[in-house]
Amino acid sequence: MWAIVVALFFLQAPDFNAEGMSALESGKYDAAEQAFVKAIAADPRDYTAHFNLALAYGFQHKDAEGIAEYRKTLELHPKLYEAELNGGILLLRQKNPAGALPLFEDAAAQKPKEFRPVYYLAECQLQTGDAVKAEQTYRTALELNGKAAGAELGMAHALARQGKLADAAPHFRQAAQLDPNYRDSLLELADLYEQNKQSEEALAIYREFPDNAAVQERTGALLLAGNKYAEAIPRLEEAYTKDATEANRVALAMAYLFANQLDKALPLFGQAVAAEPPNFDLRMAYARALRDHKQYPAAAEQFYAALKLKPNDRAAWRDLGAMLYLAKDYPRALEALDKARQLGEDTAGTAFVRAIMLDEMKQLKPALEAYRHFLELSKGHENQEWQAQQRMKLIQRELEKR
Fold it and tell me: Rounded to whole angstroms, how far apart are CA atoms 139 and 17?
């Protein structure tokens, strides 16, 4: 009788591993987790239960718990390939490539003809800073699977980090061709070209993204930097139409300014300054544009507003003085140039302008001194030097008559 009862007990004892596997296969990962926890409680040294619990954790993105269970699995069953591979993947997902590296090294050594451990080993090598080894391992991965877009992109990164940009470029291209999701990696290549001073190559890539407003903005800025104003303007206009950000507005205004389309530039500068009043550089650009358009009172207003932001900017005082000179506002121009000179802006050009204004204001002795100072600074300004010498002679005669 007792023998029958004991037999029935064992027959009816739940098989937690079987329950867990059934739940895993059905996608019921929480139920699988609970079943494998019970299986481990029944037998803590059951490495398969630890492994399957790690799987259940991984499917639920409980990565820390999954990693701990894979480590326990490997403690009970060292070098178990599947635990090394899956544990390494979770460690990579947790941005711990150094922890994953030895797992993938052993997994790849066990199955060198399998793509996944070799690919993930290359990823770890790259992320831990060994681009040379990563290049070699990516090459092996691509020999195993020539259609792997991720491996192509990884190879591109490994080569780029070694400064082999020409070798990296085809791999960026191939990754984008194999998988459209990698197409934006071409923009990374374009950025690398820019860093390498290869503007034409960068522009060629940017032209492949005509519907991307941010890319068109960058295209325009790059063309602007290369003094290709006519080509830059349509790109920047398109970017501004699609996305009227402050950056796009200012870039377009600058393009109009450099292309001497001041009627178009000025309204944009006005809007930009109104949107960002404390921006010194923006006010200076607006002031110079107004000056070039001969709107001197408005230009002066912007220069003075800029100088409130940076009172000791000598270039701003110099430009203000030069503009006031053009407006024939000599007293204020002299004040501005004197301020620039006090701050260290003392050039032949500013000295000559000061001398002319003092001369025209009949301040003969200061004018004479200013001409002398100009000649001390001047190097190669032959016409101005001759003019200064002639004016000095006339001023000397005038003073002698007094």
Answer: 41
CA distances 55 to 15, 82, 96, 108, Å, are: 18, 10, 19, 20
Query: pTM to 2 decimals?
Result: 0.69
Nearest one of 156, 176, 154, 151 to 167, comparing CA atoms: 156
Measured between alpha carbons, how far is 269 from 376 in angstroms, rounded to an integer? 39
Give residue-wise pLDDT tens across range 312-327: 999 999 999 999 999 9
Please report the DSSP string for 369-392 in residue order: HHHHHHHHH-SS-HHHHHHHHHHH
| pLDDT surpasses 90 at 186 | yes
CA distance 354 to 333: 8
| Residue 13 banded pLDDT, cuts 50, 70, 90 | low
pLDDT at position 5: 37
**Length of the chain in terms of residues written:** 402
Cβ atoms of 303 and 282 within 8 Å: the answer is: no
pLDDT reported for residue 55 = 96
Contacts of 140 (CB under 8 A, 6+ apart): 112, 118, 122
For residue 13, the tally of other CB atoms under 10 A from its CB is 9
Candidates 295, 290, 297, 293; CA nearest to 273 is 290
Taking all residues of the chain, what is their mean pLDDT, rounded to a whole number?
A: 91
User: What whole-number distance in Å separates Cα of residue 207 and Cα of residue 162?
Assistant: 27
Which candidate, 307, 144, 245, 137, places its Cα nearest to that of 319? 307
Q: Rounded to 5, what percent of the chain is helix, strand, coil?
A: 80, 0, 20
End-to-end CA distance of the chain: 145
Provide the 10 A C-beta neighbour count for residue 228: 18
Any idea which of 156-160, 181-185, 352-356 has the lowest mean pLDDT? 352-356
